[in-house]
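Shall we go through a protein fold together, starting from nothing but its sequence? Please make up or recall a protein chain and show it to me in full. Go ahead whenever you are ready, and we will take it from there.
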Amino acid sequence: MATTALPAITPMPPRAPGALPWIGAGVGLLRDPTAFFRTTRAALGDTFVVDAFGYRLFAVFSARGVQTLYALPERDASFGLATYELVMKRKLPLELVMGRRNRPHDLFGGQEVEDYLEHLEEAVRLQIDELGPQGSFEAFALMRRLGHRLGLSAWAGREAAAAPHLDPLIRHLDVLDQGDSFVRPLSALMVYATGKFRERRAMRGIEAIIGSILRQRRQRGAATGDYLDRIDASFADLPTGEREINVARDIMLIHMGAQSNLYAALAWTLINLLEHPAVLRRVLDGDDALLEQCANESIRMAQRSITLRQVLRPLDFEDAGATYALTPGVMVTTMLSVTNTTAAPGLASFDPEHYHGRKLAHHVGVPARELVSTFGHGRHSCPAQRFSISAIRISIRRLLERYEMEARFHAPTPLARQIGGVARASGPCLIAYRPRA
């Protein structure tokens, strides 16, 4: 889509200055996207245009503008195509995304999540056994490993979450991780330059491991009825070999869709609890509702997603006090980190009471609920929300019950250059642990 003739917007809003706004000193779009959108908004208002990377971004931050963005029908302005265009196409081999039969929306229904609770408990138990009685860990590194374990145990079978399969699967999945594209935006250029050689090699490695697990199950007659067996059954019409490859590719996409932010959410939830001892004491007393509030609040504070819709057909976009005619190719955009902490008084600080259950509390007086987002809004809400919050609750609860932890970090901050997902930290977050009395 990247062409020299950028799509038209009428009337044309103010445009971010400079021929290369993504490189600007200090607050360029690639250096610090949150600061870039924040300062550009302060200079140009709630609605403006950024021409970057060969795309025309129509940025909206008013309550009405963000509401309109989330209400756009997929047939008119596509979330899926925008995601494919800017992330998946540049990172993943095309053959991986073709012919899929099982998607996250099929996985994360209410009963399915209940069925996975046992697998999540087992995954945390394996991680605690690996940690041993005492020591130290870096929060994001440990939670990345635990996040892989949680996901693989749920949809790739218990075998995948343990030795000898876990470590090679993690190595391969980290190569395919789409999150790398928004944590390190320039990495997508390297993927393009190498023809996705490393990604295809990782894909083949995962196909071999999942194929081996399936063959061992069949030899033992050990079908368990778990999600791996269900995916396998959905490809029963395919010949051996092709069947296992397709099962593995379904698992890869499900895993990447669910895992790109889970481990960072796990890490920030633990970090925030350690930084707020009074809240931690209530959680240790058994308050799981509060623990889930902490998870949602941690995700809100660390959210760095850029929300995009690619316009597919001419449409009129209603914003605060104006209507804009958008032509195909325009990317309607907002940046969650700009509004998540500014849409109402008090949102700049961590407070679990901002949430009632998994929803923003009524007393938080935002002009529009869409201005604060953790898992999205409307039909494009993340289907993994219930699974993710359940995984965080179980994991953090079991770790805190087993260990007394001491923060060896001071006031960690989000990674400035990140332009998507839940923030990684700008530096190491070390935590020491020992048995809880």
User: Anything to note?
Assistant: Residues 92-303+340-435 form a domain with the Cytochrome p450 fold (CATH 1.10.630.10).
